[in-house]
Amino acid sequence: MSDTPRVRVFDNGVTTATFIDAAALHGTLVVTFDPFTYLNPDGPGFGEAVLVASGYDVLAFQKRQENFYQELTREDVAAVLKPYQHRYRRLVFYGCSVGAYAVLYFGTDFEADILSISPRVSTHPIYVRELRLSARWAELHKHGSMADRPSRARQVALIYDPVLVNQPAAKADILFMEQEILPGFPGITIHALRHTGHPSASSLAETHQLRPLLSQFLEQGRMDFAPYQALRASSPTYMMNFSAWLLERGKARWAASLAQRAVDLAPQLANVHFQRSHTHLAFGEFDEARQAARLALNIEPHRHHERLRLLNAFEAAGDLDGMTGLISDALELPEAALVSTARCALAGRAAQMLDTAGRTEEALAFALRAVTLGGRPNHLLQQAAQLQLKLGYWEEALGVLDEAAGLRADAALTHRLRAKALVELSRTGDAQAALRRAATLDSGDWTLHLQMAELHAMNYEAQQARQILQNIVHDAPPSAALLLGVARVHLKLAEDRTALETLQQALRLAPEDMEVRLLLAVTQRGLGQTAAALKLVEQALALRPDHVSLRRLHHELREEAAAFS
Fold first, then answer.
1. What single-letter DSSP state applies at residue 228?
2. Closest to 94 measured CA to CA, from 199, 167, 170
3. Contact at 8 Å (CB) between 242 and 256?
4. Which residue, 146, 149, 197, 366, is the most exposed by fewest CB within 10 angstroms?
5. DSSP 3-state assignment of 92?
6. Cβ contacts of 243-246, under 8 Å, gap ≥ 24
7. Closest by alpha carbon to 522, among 543, 546, 481, 491?
8. Hey, what's the torsion of the CAs at 514, 516, 521, 527, to 10 degrees?
9. Do residues 183 and 144 touch, judged by C-beta distance below 8 A?
């Protein structure tokens, strides 16, 4: 191979074409296109070593960057091939993954045979839609439809896995085949190899059948898959994919045995350990699942998509410690293995999960780590401060929030939280200023005005509190929750009758709101309206007989009514 000359015959800066002369022993020129993320045009192309060793001349199209061959036109390929076509009796296009797409798209213009293994092109509108990719991906796609002209190809064979599991693009693959490939190549021969994964070439190579099948196609124009079918159990990729398919259908024990078989066959492959972790989780074997996950991620720490899938699985299984353990490992990775933005997102996720579980101290540690990794943006500072407030770390929270308030992207939430910390530190005047700033930034949030009224009430500034409450009642959109808050402030101001009127208004807006009914009954009771309160509570209990506070109040009111009867 090293003695075979490689001559660069095309280079547009992104895509290259290189001719490799193997003395044309077969009178066949094989045109190959590299798969996804093969980005070294100075190295051998897809299948080049095998083809040249077998005496086939090769024209290898390769990429310097992953552009899905969108910078290459059919006219470019025709111009590259023109000097060679008269020298060969037969032309064959051969590719895998995005290379499999390319051999179909470019090969349709030639009287050629085409072997396409697991075609996929993520820039196509079908993939952009199904995978919900950004508009940037759609803008990359410049090729037209495969069916925009009659195909001149002679024999076209396609190999793929029809039952892909854990592949977000699986549905898009099928749609692409139905809407693009089949209309463009009506006579295509489809070879559906279940559980070979994407690309199917992996399972074929592991069973040492890829080379024989390629030779059969080149020499005879047909392929015999019986030897592969007999050997497929020796493919770790096949066993892993079969295991995932079984696990998806609830056949956990069978799935676990196949996953272990895959590990035994190829313990050096990260994918088999990923799958073994999932099968352990199905049985609640958390320690074993964590161990398998760590093995996989130690082998391939850059597999962030798989890391996220594992985190989702650990979360679904209820193993929070497994989740946070994987995240802790990820946070120690260097930038080259996992960028800081991804580590920041993981730390934030751990903080949220731990907070939900009531493990606030641990949540705060992750939140502060996220702040550092993320460059101290507003939302992460807010997250950390909220946890500090939960823990009663008033001074620390205020320091974090003061930092957030100094950022260009000032936010109402920052000042709302600052007000809470300032109140706890008995700095009521500063808290009022913080709330006024929050209301300026978010004038439509009437709860901020309510909080200001509460602060005035706490500070014995009844007139100011009363004015704000009147503004809320008259100007804010009708809201039972807001009126409930207004009533509570009136009660703090010892304005029980005004509170009663406000609660009656709230009840008209939300007649089934038990909190409104409860406070209204308590207020009626305080004003000596025991009979009215009892009637209201009995009506509420008819709706919610299990409401503990209402039942307690009902008992007390009945005793009071009996005492005065």
1. H
2. 199
3. no
4. 149
5. strand
6. 243/275, 243/279, 244/165, 244/166, 244/275, 244/278, 245/163, 245/165, 245/195
7. 491
8. 170
9. no
Per DSSP, the three-state class of 115 is strand
The residue count of the chain comes to 565
Contact indicator for 361, 380 with CB cutoff of 8 Å? no
Q: Where are the beta strands (DSSP E) in 210-331?
A: none
Mean pLDDT of 363-382: 93
pLDDT score for 565: 65
What token pair was written down for 59? Answer: 């024209």
Contacts of 371 (CB under 8 A, 6+ apart): 380, 381, 383, 384, 400
Residue with tokens 């007000």: 419
- The continuous run of DSSP H or E covering 9 comes out as strand 6-11
Question: Which regions of 81-178 does DSSP assign to beta strands (E)?
Answer: 90-96, 113-117, 156-160
CB contact at 8 A, 143 and 172: no
Q: How far apart are CA 286 and CA 278, in angstroms?
A: 10
* φ, ψ (nearest 5 deg) of residue 349: -65, -40
pLDDT at 4 over 80: no
Q: Select from 117, 75, 71 the least CA-distant residue to 93.
A: 117
Amino acid at 490: H
Q: Give every CB contact of residue 38 below 8 A, 6+ residues apart in sequence.
A: 45, 46, 62, 63, 99
Question: What 8-state DSSP symbol labels residue 93?
Answer: E
Range in 23-27, 51-55, 83-87, 466-470 the model is least confident about: 23-27
Distance CA 360, CA 512 (A): 34
The sheet carrying 28-33 orders its strands as 6-11, 15-20, 57-63, 28-33, 90-96, 113-117, 156-160, 189-192
Angle between helices 530-543 and 514-526 (to 10 degrees): 160
Kindly tell me if the per-residue pLDDT of 385 is higher than 90.
yes
Confidence tier at 1 by pLDDT (50, 70, 90): very low
Backbone angles phi, psi at 557, to 5 degrees: -65, -40
Give the tens place of pLDDT for each residue, 468-521.
999 999 999 999 999 999 999 999 999 999 999 999 999 999 999 999 999 999
pTM score: 0.77
Q: What is the mean pLDDT of the chain?
A: 94
One-letter amino acid of 353: M
Buried/exposed code over 378-415 (b: 16+ C-beta within 10 A; e: otherwise) = bebbbbbbbbbbeeebbebbbebbebbbeeeeebbbbb
Residue type, 227: P
Residue carrying structure tokens 């074409």: 17
The Cα 192–Cα 195 span in angstroms is 9
